[in-house]
Amino acid sequence: MRSPFTAAGQYYSAAILVVIFALGASGCADTASITEEAQLASLTVSPGDLNPAFSSSTTRYDLKVSSSDDSVTIRANPQDSATKMTMNGVATNAEEARSFPLPQPPSITPITIVLAAPSGTQKTYLVFVERPVPPAPPSSNNNLSALSVTSGNVILTLDPPFAPGTLSYTVDVDSNVGSVTVSATKADPNAAMTGSVTAGAGQATGQAPITLNGAGSPTPISITVTAPNGNAQEYRITVNRLKPSSNNNLSVLAVTPGALVPPFAPNRQNYTVVVDITVGSVVVSATKADPDAVMSALGSVIAPKGIPVGQVTIRPGQGPVAIIVVAPDGSQKTYTISVVVQPFR
User: pLDDT category, 319, cuts 50, 70, 90?
Assistant: First the structure.
């Protein structure tokens, strides 16, 4: 007859074996499920960043590199070390860095990462590497495409006529012009324009009023155009404000009725008009050589600035009448006319 302890020991031994078997079976099932789910634990690239950020459940990524990058390096680590891995068909160990050459831009290069678990389960990750077109080099265009100088609504003459490659100009203005407006347009709107006229990048045209120096003196104007690549060149304009005219001559002097004695000449200043006793008055017409001069007679202005012709009436016996011409610079000249009555014969 068996001891009850022996029987109990056999019972407990059998129970322990069942538990150990169950645990072993459970452990094998967990290991199999990990191995069969072939996926990555990490995926890193250089240069650039994956889009979207890495997740083991995400199998498609975009990677944008610089146009100057001619290769990309990828490291991948499967979750299960027993999983086999290939990159573009080449067997690759976990965390092994593989470099892939990139074709000339623009290009998109696919890189395929295939995982194969011992159980036969497979998963494929795709990385599409974009190498964009290189950016265009910055422009070297530091030219002006237009340049003008105006006084009021009058476009003044540049000497020589404007050309993008001509950098120096002169402009002559009358002595009474105190300011001008300079307008300049850049050939490349992204260039910068500084100096007497300014315009920032993206602004094509600049305009500025320029106060001129005194009459008889030049006013320098400079415009520097700097291209996007940093190259600069300077355009120069010299505005010559003329001296006031010293012309205080008459260009025409005539009388009605009668005739001047001696005949008129601009530099001859004294004249006589001989008339019949029946003539009650003589009309004198005088024309200034410089319309901007001022002409007066008998204490009154008979031709202001800008009016070329003036008239004055002289009566016989009135005595010599002075016609005074004052030039724009202030110098003056006096012409005299005497009316002489011819006695009866």
Answer: confident
